[in-house]
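Sequence in, structure out.
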Amino acid sequence: MRTILIPVDFTSTTENAVRTAAEWAKQYEYQHIILLKTSEESEFDYLHMAEGHSFVNEESINNLLKKTESLLNNLSQIITEKFPEITVTKEFSNWTLTRSINEIIKNNTSVELIVLGSDDQAVSGDSFVSENIISITRTSPVKTLIVPNGYNYSKIKDILIPCDINSIAKLDRLFHHKSIIQRQDVQLMLLNIHTKENTDSSDEKKKQLEEYIQQNLTEIPNTIHYSYDKNIINGILNFAASNNTDLIIALPGKHSFLYFLTSRSISEGIYQNVNQPVLILK
């Protein structure tokens, strides 16, 4: 079964990500969703100190387990009430979040997508998962969908793909998913941002990009756009805001959200984006 993995916590950010993942599963024909809850607390949270000795605070552990069980049941119900045909599996792990994710993917080869809820400037829920977005996206062997807390799901039709005109071969990552995209009624918008004022990409580079797209995406409606902004992320988000955009796909290279997440403050990338989910390809 094609599977989505969702790391969860006790915030509205998680609930929104789960609702979005369920809709995504329906649109893109996933049959299975795994809900993963890890222990966020330090081992010291379970210890009680007395007279120079320590012992496990069983009451705290039991309360956490009950709370976790209730959370997983509620999130599972959100999915199955609307889409009873989707199988939901609940997992709990005492390992770190990134290790837990990678172990599940290692042992379950049907996992094709991780969905992560992201706190944003509009709605902040102190999400544990959101705090770990960078480490998860860096280490994940599968593609990752980042869902801002302020996002309300709508059917994916208009997809924005920022691309580096000097590294067009990296669009190959997109072509690996072409068969899935072809089955959907979508419009692709490819966007190149140049960062030097009063300059533009050379006609030769534009021609190379356009020929490359024409050769590889002939079956999918698409347009190519060029824009200027000193800050690539701002340029991408401004373009997305002024054009109908349901999804941003991040490719490798300097136009990738992942590139900015690994080299700049997270607030400059994901937290500025409160309207569209971001799909980071691997």
